[in-house]
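[step 3/7] inverse_fold.run input=structure_tokens len=537
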């Protein structure tokens, strides 16, 4: 029990209580056991203890944390979420949906059969899949003094350890060695998204004598040619370059796009004694001028007007080789190649301000969050009843759309990485602290009444989705072992799990699969958490 003075301090200094719980929780989260740690989720365990001892937090702090956290999650997932259904991402997205759905179905069955209350079951579902967005959605669907936090805190360790053990044991059950499979398996070509440079010698008669600007297939293949070899130096290409036999050009594109491009131009050249001036002939420019924002590369015609080539664009933490139809956005960081004087002239035209790339637009943040909250409050008639997206669904949907579009009018769907990570972490720890303190008061009673039942249910909710998901991945989706392991870790939102897989192989296949499945699983957790609550209510 807290002393009288301790209770008085907790009541008089709520800000201090919040800071102590968060700090101790983050310290606990850094403790590593067998290579695993709780991370930010350590906050909920300290908060449970604080709630059990009688501490309280100011009203509304959890709602603020929920909105900040879920909005930033949506901004992070937005640029990739809607694109994850292309190519092999379709299979991995489907795997993530199946895993989350199986977890929700197993939780529903366990709740019905074992008599677990809806709030504990919802927390158990989120904890077993180590999903804080799932916890956020469950808390929003079950406001008040629910025991969502208690269920999450009890199930979380089972989810953390369960995925790690599964990725260790599953390959052995199949009689396969992950390291050997990694050496023998070649990642599919369309998974190789690295931006690379390649020196190509022009020998194809079909392109000799033609202007480089007239070769439309280069634009179609999303490639930039920035330099040509003169002597043993790579120099920026002139605007009116006419291709000649034996010329050497420097191509920049995604690795999987290069082979057909090289064939159309000529052949790969392995020259090693060449010099490229990356100091005076290249420059990073951050766009802020309205003279360039909103215009396509075709409209700007930079090679003719300025003698420079944009080889890459960094936007919303994503780097890509631009097409002629791509439009420049405010805050884009352009990687330019050209002569020094031309680069400086274009930088002045583009309104180069390095700070823009790292500036946080608080107005866009405020408008985006407010729009999400407003969207969440809109009630929609379904089957004679009304339902709303709420504080979890509304901001999430708004952020996904903004993150995908980049901006809607003047409202930007971009936060600098550092700012986004900070706001995500602040929102998460406030959410966890509030959930833990509210659940902690009845934690002892929950453990006495449902302790063994919740433990057994947690094991089932972790084990059943992974076991059936692994069969589905390899038998139905026909995913190779490494892709299946990465997809399972992504679908279970388990960072420690993918960490274990990557220590066993140098192949990038598991990481690519994890990255495709993870954002889909994050979003699906918020959907199925609410469906689970509705089904058990």
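[step 3/7] decode complete -> sequence:
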């Amino acid at each position: 029990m807290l002393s009288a003075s301790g209770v008085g301090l907790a009541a008089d200094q709520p800000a201090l209580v919040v800071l102590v719980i968060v700090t101790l929780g983050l310290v606990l989260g850094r403790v590593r056991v067998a290579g695993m740690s709780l991370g930010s989720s350590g906050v909920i365990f300290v908060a449970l203890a604080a709630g059990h001892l009688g501490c309280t937090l100011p009203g509304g702090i959890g709602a603020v944390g929920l909105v900040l956290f879920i909005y930033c999650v949506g901004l992070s997932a937005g640029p990739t979420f809607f694109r994850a259904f292309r190519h092999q991402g379709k299979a991995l997205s489907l795997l993530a949906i199946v895993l989350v759905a199986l977890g929700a179905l197993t939780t529903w069955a366990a709740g019905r059969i074992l008599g677990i209350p809806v709030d504990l079951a919802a927390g158990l579902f989120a904890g077993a899949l180590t999903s804080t967005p799932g916890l956020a959605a469950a808390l929003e669907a079950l406001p008040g003094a629910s025991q969502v936090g208690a269920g999450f805190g009890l199930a979380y360790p089972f989810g953390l350890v369960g995925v790690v053990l599964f990725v260790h044991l599953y390959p052995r059950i199949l009689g396969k060695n992950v390291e050997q499979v990694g050496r023998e398996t070649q990642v599919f070509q369309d998974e190789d998204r690295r931006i690379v440079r390649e020196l190509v010698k022009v020998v194809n008669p079909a392109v000799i004598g033609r202007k480089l600007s007239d070769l439309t297939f280069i634009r179609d293949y999303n490639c930039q040619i920035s330099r040509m070899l003169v002597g043993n130096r790579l120099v920026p290409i002139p605007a009116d370059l006419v291709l000649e036999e034996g010329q050497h050009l420097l191509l920049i594109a995604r690795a999987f796009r290069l082979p057909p491009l090289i064939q159309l131009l000529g052949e790969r050249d392995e020259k090693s004694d060449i010099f490229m001036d990356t100091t005076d002939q290249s420059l990073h420019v951050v766009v802020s001028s309205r003279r360039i924002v909103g215009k396509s590369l075709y409209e700007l015609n930079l090679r003719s007007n300025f003698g420079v080539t944009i080889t890459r664009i960094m936007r919303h933490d994503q780097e890509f080789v631009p097409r002629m139809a791509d439009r420049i956005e405010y805050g884009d960081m352009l990687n330019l190649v050209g002569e020094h004087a031309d680069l400086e002239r274009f930088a002045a035209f583009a309104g180069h301000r390095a700070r823009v790339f790292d500036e946080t637009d608080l107005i866009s943040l405020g408008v985006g969050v407010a729009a999400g909250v407003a969207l969440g409050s809109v009630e929609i008639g379904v089957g004679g009843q009304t339902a709303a997206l709420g504080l979890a669904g509304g901001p999430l949907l708004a952020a996904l759309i903004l993150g995908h579009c980049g901006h809607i009018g003047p409202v930007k769907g971009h936060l600098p990485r550092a700012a986004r990570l900070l706001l995500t972490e602040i929102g998460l720890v406030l959410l966890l602290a509030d959930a833990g303190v509210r659940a902690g008061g009845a934690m002892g009673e929950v453990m006495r009444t449902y302790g063994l039942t919740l433990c057994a249910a947690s094991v089932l909710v972790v084990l059943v989705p992974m076991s059936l998901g692994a069969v589905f991945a390899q038998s139905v989706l026909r995913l190779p072992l490494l892709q299946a392991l990465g997809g399972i870790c992504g679908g279970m939102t388990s960072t420690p799990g993918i960490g274990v897989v990557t220590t066993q192989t140098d192949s990038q296949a598991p990481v690519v699969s994890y990255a495709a499945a993870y954002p889909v699983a994050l979003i699906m957790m918020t959907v199925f958490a609410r469906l689970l609550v509705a089904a058990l209510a």
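[step 4/7] annotate
Residues 1-5, 186-191 have pLDDT under 50 and may be disordered.
The chain is about 60% helix and 10% strand.
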